[in-house]
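Model it.
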Amino acid sequence: MLDVLLPTTDAGVAAQFALLLVVALTAGWFARHNKDVLRLVVGLTLLLAGLMAVRAIH
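Modeled.
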């Protein structure tokens, strides 16, 4: 389970980022009529992408 959450290879990180984009776009599409939920989806996506960027830099 730890390998899924914290991949050690570049291919694993790319797959994790691609999965994040797919999930975020799907959730955004379902939440497009409710602005509050859409803001939540965008905020969580930015938070997770930011955490991935910090982990990549570190």
